[in-house]
## 1
Amino acid sequence: MKSFATTAIAAIALASLAVGAGLAQNKPDSSSVMKQQTPDLKNANVVTRYTDWKYQALYERVKKRGVLEEISEFLSPLKLKQKLIFETTSCGVINAFYDPTAQTVHLCYEMLDWIENVAAASPDKLGQGSASNGPRRGLLPGVTRAEAIVGAIGGVALHETGHAIFDIQEIPRLGREEDAADMVAGFVMLQFGSEVARVMIKGMFNMTHNWAAETPNISAALLADSHSLALQRGFAILCLAYGKDPETFKDLAQAWLPPARQPSCAREYRQAENAFRKTILPDVDPVLLKKVQQMQILRPDDSKL
Amino acid sequence: MPQPLNLVTAECGGQIELPYQPGAPVTICYEYVGLIEQAAPSRLGTVGQAVVTQDIALVGPFVQFSLRSVARQLIDMLELPVWGNAEDAADSLAALIMLEVSPQIAQKTIFGTAYFFAKAGQTEKLDLGAVRPHIAQRYFNLLCIAVGSDLVRYSVFLPIDRQEGPVDLPKNRYGHCLQLAAPERSEYSQIKYAFHQLIRDKYVDLPLLKQVRTIEWLADD
């Protein structure tokens, strides 16, 4: 099928671009930093579009950085069976989703806004979450604002791309759909070297922590939801990372991952690797994938956010 | 199967289930059976609007546990590609098999398992770091697949035209389960498609399967 890798890169690029956009208010135009594209990296089946002016500033920043154009390039190794549309839009709710009837990934400005202003904000600025004794919102100790934004947006984009790839490529899923998409996102994040992987995993875990902080009371409706609970999702992704590279993620696992989970992480990563090899890799152009993997994912400006 | 799969019943030293180990025998612990017996009603019980006899409450979760334990081992033995949680995958495969044998077997095993999960869910501690989801989540997953397979038979678990109860499949979930506009996207259809693609078409002897399906499983006696 298609390349997670490609997808990943696209998503990561999207993240970094959006992040850059988020900070662009305080910085000179940094568009010259990006653009590492290679002319042959283009996926003819990927359509991109920016819509909506409700979030004018976000819209302009994301468009100026050419986020969606880069997605098409990053998805180039993926032999998609049908068209796939990526759209940034205003959804009226904090969300991102894949619509299978329109084969469109919607990246909502509300989600980008929430990530910038809640998940990546200082906890002191946010005050207490919805429960007085619940976990605090905002940045976890040890996570930078740049990591929180890049990792979260990249993770969300990868998750939704996972849904799209499952649907368009008709990939069988034995696990639950939402966990499956999380696993795609987590696996892809880990394919671009340890530096990129740490940024992505930290940002993604920080986001799940913030989701958990916003829903501290675990109701029957939450247990019944098609998504796993926020922290279950965070632990699953961190476990994948620790399973792939225990050295790189040792400190994060010690800080955040329950010890009882750690022994199964290597097996969980092998499971994802096996699934990727058998269901997606056959449709990936290996030459293009290599090119995509060599692209610069994190840019100098990202670390200064 | 590329290698033998051993099934054993055993005392497990007080544990209801042995920790999963790839390649280990599928072990049904007497302690787990004891838990099922403990949860079963003396004659009749209910889970939401569904009435469950003692027999059903005993047989259903035993069958589910056996099938899901075999499925979990087969996932590794056959190196099946699993996106998502492998524990959920084993549960989903068990549910699918329970639903596909016959409508009668399906109802017995689904109702019985739902009864047991609902009871056990009242006492199981929520461990967010555990590989296996909480039993309440597994309960709702089971119902989701069941209603997707046969809306009429399992509608007792849906709060339609009545107030939602604690063991009903909530409104925020059942739309996903039914997918009335596109049933091929229901969780039931999804696991069935995966089973066909990854297991039935590659590893199942179809004439033997046909024979197996003619056996009268779980007769009332």
## 2
Amino acid sequence: MAEVRLSNLSKCFDNKPVVDRINLTAKDREFLVLVGPSGCGKTTTLRMVAGLEDMDEGDIYIGDVLVNEVAPKDRDIAMVFQNYALYPHMNVYKNMAFGLKFRNLSKAEIDNRVRRAGEILGIEDLLLKKPRQLSGGQRQRVAMGRAIVRQPKVFLFDEPLSNLDAKLRVQMRSELSKLHGKLETTIIYVTHDQIEAMTLADRIVVMNAGHIMQIGNPLEVYENPTNIFVAGFIGSPPMNFIDATLVEANGHLYVDAGIFKLAVPQALDGRFKARINQLVVFGIRPDHINDLAFVIPDQGFEELDALVEVIEPLGSEVILIVTAGRHQFAAKVHPQTKARLNQSIKLSIDMNKMHLFDKETGQKIDAQ
Amino acid sequence: MILRKQQGILLILPALIVMGVFTFYPLLEGIRIAFTNKHLLKEGTEFVGLQNFARLASDEIFWISLYQSIVLTAVVVCLQFVFGLILAWAMSQELPGMSWFKSIIMASWVIPVAATVILFKFMAQPDVGLINIIIKGLGFENLNRYWLGDLKVALPFIMLLHLWRNVPFYGIAFLAAMQAIPGSYYEAAEIDGANAWHRFWHITLPGIRNMAIVMVTIHVLWTFNNFDFVYLATGGGPVNATDVLPVYVYRQCWSSYTLGYGASIGTIMLLLLMVYFIVFIKISDRGNIS
């Protein structure tokens, strides 16, 4: 069993809490991703699991063993660092074998493990090379190899792809996914990149300012963010937020943003009725706003005129930055849109995908 | 229009001229004089071939000076390396007052050599010197002596002067090299199971390798060529007990006035250091490549 459980984990630096009463369980063989902006406490949390930082409060269990006072080398974990941390004076073979030397393994067993890891990662031809002779992707594989040979209960990854270029990152992401499938071990992975989180994770833990904002599988976190922070952090481009008032007219609910009013689908009425005439934050993803010319209107779709300010063609789609009155938002439209700069465009908004958040607390407004 | 290449040469020309006048010319002239019987008080200088070098071979003081130069250099550089490492490790700890300590520790390097020698000579005085006061206080009256006048202790005392002056320099240099080693290497090693000694041996030492090569190279050259400590402290005595080649050269040239013979000793020193330098660089390069 390689479950990792964090119970009321807290850590302060200079009397400021950087991790504040975290409660979290990484299930056995789960790929758990901690994601959040810089300074949110995700790396500090990972380092406490590794034993590289002391906690101020709380407990950490690996398997069923309380490891608060256990040295890093005895926690049966392996870690892959952002800058790889490969020993520059040792070749790849020695880098991978280094940790095994201290564990009373025979030379034959060490050799066997190193070569097997080399094959899994496709670096068997690089064993005699030094780190400075390797590319970034190769170094990252060696760093993973050094972790794999240890056959630990838990792998810890600290932003391992941050130093790679965009194309290599995409390639390494899929390799990491395949590796997880092969190794069937618990992985706790830290990243600030929400695309990495969405593509790799079995479950995502979104963190901010030392707190957990939401835990869930990628689809849950994307489709049902429980607060404005998660809604704005997950998704690219980020969700649009518009200050509005929830009003009722002729028995229907409307999101009134001043310059425009959008009808709330009747199916969602029950969720929001309690907030009529209150200030709210209306959230809608750019993915759910399209050029009207390419949409077959359906129930719950609303039309809106907006002025095009920026056009970002991405090939498979076009991102438009548009304004309606004082409100600016993004729309992901069909690549063949006829949108022109500084000209008006008719947009279609899928209100079935709308979100409302409390203006004070940022929490999602849902059925009471 | 002056080409860029010519501009470059013009810009380095002053430095080349200075090097030529103050380094290359004296070097080549010194080697030339080594093959003559030049004497400061006698007229007429003749080419004598290898006569001076033949005289070296049977000069007992030359061999004593050579031996003591090598011993002094080897012991001092090794001890400076070890103590410098220990000092650097100590300074890398986050202890109260450490930044203040790092500032004042270089005082020994800053104090002029002459002042350092006077300090230590006074400390070595019988009865009134600090060393003997402490020794007498501990009850070892029989050890009270003038330490620089003792045949067996004078050379080790000179070594102490070198250590006192240069260990802080080693410490600061190694500290800078240690601080350039990424902390993640140590963390990775800690997770791998390496204890403090293993981390020192496998990460710190290789990490400071380049700095260590530079420090050892320059200090072998400096120590082997060092004149002022020995000349000011003992003049090479008592009874040649602290004689080293630079002091012996000086004595041959300015006490015996035999410039030709003195230059031949200097030429031998040059050859020895060149051999050392070539061998050392080859070994270092092999270490880099492997």
